[in-house]
Amino acid sequence: MKPVNGPQLVSLARQYGTPLWTYDAAVIRERIAQLQQFDVIRFAQKACSNTHILRLMRAQGVKVDSVSLGEIERALAAGYDARGDHPGIVFTADLLDEATLAKVVEHGIPVNAGSPQMLEQLGRVSPGHRVWLRINPGFGHGHSQKTNTGGETSKHGIWFEHLAEAYALIDQYGLDLVGLHMHIGSGVDYEHLGNVCGAMIKEVKASGRDLKAISAGGGLSIPYKVDGERIDTAHYFSLWDAARKEIEAHLGHPVTLEIEPGRFLVAESGKLVAEVRAMKDVGSNHFVFCDAGFNDLMRPAMYGSHHEVSLLAADGTPKQGGERASVIAGPLCESGDVFTQGEGGTVIPRDLPAAEVGDWIVFHDGGAYGASMSSNYNTRPLIPEVLIDGGETRLIRRRQTVAELLALESV
Ligand code: LLP
Fold first, then answer.
1. Which of 17, 62, 79, 136 could form a disulfide with 157 if both were Cys (CB 3.0 to 4.6 A apart)?
2. Using CA atoms, how far apart are residues 153 and 144, in angstroms rounded to an integer?
3. Where are the domains of the chain?
4. Spatial distance between the Cα atoms of 300 and 76, rounded to a whole number of angstroms
5. How do residues 68-120 score in pLDDT, each as one tens digit?
6. pTM for the whole thing?
7. Is 261 in the pocket of ligand 1 (CB under 6 A)?
């Protein structure tokens, strides 16, 4: 079982109600420290975009990657700007809508372009604008096909054989090419990493351009299972540093090395706390129902992702005894609202101590793509988020109300 501070979580659950997200600031700071060898750590805020988390990142010197107008607004609200050689915000996407185009131009936010049209649309209104090129190197790798962001089946980045068109547009509009970027997916292993580093060296040399920076993208995995493998960040850095050195030798000057993790920085900090509300046997399956649904934590339903769980008694002590194979389900009116399932929806029961109404279920490692992927499905309001920082706990998002949802429709 993963470690859990039961009494603290239960006291927060009683104070703010369930379901509830909690984040441990110390874990985030520890993960940031593990990547300090990189020149720039750029947090992929899609993983967890709460402005209080972004402020915590900023206080540690971490920059951000934004992928939408909303995420740019969040970064600005958290005090980031795009000034200087290592701008606080970079915008990464495969298209630019008019409103986002206006915003990146207004704030001088560098654009990491995933399509030639982005370069054209930006160049027309903002000659000299700083750009990165996101390259699809022709291969990718993900923890699920849905998170593989390279190769022919991925919509992301500019296909490596079509870069000449991008360079021509950069010249035509006098855009300022900062660097090349590759993010081939989430859950990249060392074998693929070697291939990405090789592809980066090849593309820099083939470009015939002078570049200031390269970005390693994100994709660093975390051990979701108790016995899961923990990434060796020193080894990860050494592979990229060797690539950077070869690029520096080729260009004849220093090159900035950026990394763009989402999950690695926040996943292990976040826990979803829910209350057990019902149990039932359906044929050979024993279901344990909690008050969190896939609208709160979508990863199991979307990718068949594994999240470890802890079952706590009403007073917060870990439950023991009476273990049985249990399917953990939520309240949504949809059969896929099950937290213990594999890719494709196969139900995978988990050995749990005997559960009772009033127990608590804690889902581990939900800090990345948990709250940020939640929805209002079944008209369920977004749930509170609490930041635990040393001895202090702080509400960083209150619970949404149904009245707020209905207000949107008062038109
Ligand atoms: N950079 C870019 C351009 C990305 O598209 C992503 C993730 C990242 C960085 C950060 O990837 P990470 O280090 O977090 O693996 N919802 C899925 C993950 C989708 C990731 C999309 N892009 C999940 O829950 O696993």
1. 136
2. 13
3. 36-260, 267-407
4. 32
5. 999 999 999 999 999 999 999 999 999 999 999 999 999 999 999 999 999 99
6. 0.98
7. yes
